[in-house]
From TrEMBL:
Transmembrane segments: none annotated. Residues 55-399 form the Aminotransferase class I/classII large domain. Keywords: Ligase, Transferase. GO terms for molecular function: ligase activity; pyridoxal phosphate binding; transferase activity. This is Aminotransferase class I/classII large domain-containing protein. Its cofactor is pyridoxal 5'-phosphate. It holds the Pfam family Aminotran_1_2. It comes from Gemmata massiliana. InterPro entries: Aminotransferase_I/II_large (IPR004839), AON_synthase_class-II (IPR050087), PyrdxlP-dep_Trfase (IPR015424), PyrdxlP-dep_Trfase_major (IPR015421), PyrdxlP-dep_Trfase_small (IPR015422). It comes from the Bacteria.
């Protein structure tokens, strides 16, 4: 029997580009590739059951540990009882009261005039970036900006908007890129607020100077800093610039918030325009009411007298792991946000290293190409406030055993990788 067109399409895709690459990796490393796993159970002490084994989880981006906070889970339960499980319509027609309240709280916490909640940061970026420009405008992005910013650029380009990338964290390269794109009406400059793998912060003040000279505004994806950097976890923008003039800031409601969604913060006028022009908001389903109640609770925690102690515990854990891994002579990257990466190198070696740690009782993420450059695989460890010092010491012991068992890059390899 002849195969259906869909079957032939899938067969063709399976033998093309990145799909072929991943399928080959699954075939070559069936026992090493710890992807598409099923978490079978979780405990409140940051352990979970994976592959039939209880291990300590250093792969969770619930940085403040609020996913296990009874106030947050109670808020979700309260939201279900009051509003049910679903909003019932697109936000183009109506918003439930917790949505309006959550956006007001987020704006008050940030210090912006207004905020707009999306179902995720990715949907914020693929909706807001194309919505901010027309064919008379341009969008430029840092070469290492998050994948979702890149996807937003692709959508803008498909609508006839000119787009470009500039060299990482370089105001001179930004200026040259904008100069080469003239004439244009306005420009949007898209960058990350913190680059999670390297820990680099963008020179926002210098970018702001360039922006004003070239009729441009800043668009800062601060998802990895939300809740964990800056005063009361507000992120990088307010600390670097003193406010949000000429800036839109994008944040995460998962990660540090341990809830669901993303947001854009900025002027009331900008938010009003995005409500009309952002397709992922207009045509996408909103964040369910129970999570909106949880978002309100988390903002209250971030603004409370309790937050500094919670943040201090997280920061101490990050320093503990970063210092310990560095003292082992490993090539350590990151550590500014609660993501610490250790360079391993080749894809197979990186996958073997991740499996080694798993077998020693610790789950970390083995990150290989295309998420990082080919041959520059890393072990990505995500630190939470509710990790104990003993758990971090145990991970460091496992890393020391890994270093004894297999050749690992020296610390100097990080500088050459960044330079490349």
């Amino acid at each position: 029997m002849n195969s259906a067109p869909l079957d032939r399409l899938i067969d063709a895709l399976a033998d093309t580009g990145m799909t072929r690459f991943f399928r080959r990796m699954f075939d070559d490393y069936p026992d090493l590739l710890m992807k598409d796993q099923t978490v079978e159970a979780v405990r409140p002490d940051r352990t979970f059951k994976l592959g039939g084994r209880w291990v300590t989880n250093f792969g969770s981006d619930s940085f403040l540990g609020l996913d296990q906070d009874s106030r947050v889970t109670s808020a979700i339960e309260r939201g279900v009882r009051a509003w049910g499980s679903h909003n019932g319509s697109s936000r183009a027609f109506a918003s439930v009261e917790p949505n309006v309240r959550a956006e007001r709280k987020i704006a008050d916490w940030l210090g912006t005039e207004a905020a707009l909640i999306y179902p995720s940061v990715t949907l914020a970026n693929v909706g807001a970036l194309p919505g901010l420009v027309t064919r008379r405008d341009v969008v430029v992005a840092d070469q290492f900006a998050h994948n979702s910013i890149d996807e937003g650029l692709k959508l803008a380009k498909a609508r006839g908007v000119r787009t470009a990338k500039f060299a990482h964290n370089s105001p001179d390269a930004l200026e040259e890129t904008l100069r080469s794109l003239r004439p244009f009406r306005h420009a949007v400059i898209a960058v990350d607020g913190v680059y999670s793998m390297s820990g680099h912060l963008p020179p926002l003040a210098e970018f702001q100077r360039v922006a004003r000279e070239y009729d441009a505004c800043l668009y800062v994806d601060d998802a990895h800093a939300s809740g964990v950097l800056g005063e009361h976890g507000r992120g990088t923008v307010r600390e670097a610039l003193g406010g949000y003039d000429n800036v839109l800031t994008i944040g995460s409601l998962s990660k540090g918030f341990s809830c669901l969604g993303g947001f854009v913060g900025g002027s009331q006028a900008a938010i009003d325009v995005l409500k009309l022009k952002s397709n992922s908001l207009i045509f996408g389903g909103p964040v369910p009411p129970p999570y909106l109640e949880a978002v309100c609770t988390v903002v209250d925690i971030l603004m409370s007298a309790e937050y500094p102690a919670l943040r201090a515990k997280l920061d101490a854990n990050v320093r503990h792991l970063t210092r310990g891994a560095t003292q082992l002579g490993l090539a350590v990257m990151g550590g500014r946000v609660p993501i610490v990466s250790v360079l391993v190198g080749a894809e197979e070696a990186t996958l073997k290293a991740g499996k080694f740690l798993y077998e020693h009782g610790y789950y970390v993420q083995s990150v290989v190409f295309p998420a990082v450059p080919h041959g520059a695989g890393v072990l990505r460890m995500q630190v939470n406030a509710n990790h104990t010092p003993a758990q971090i010491d145990g991970l460091l012991d496992a890393l020391a055993a890994l270093k004894d068992a297999t050749p690992m890059p020296e610390a100097s390899a990080v500088a050459s990788l960044v330079a490349a």
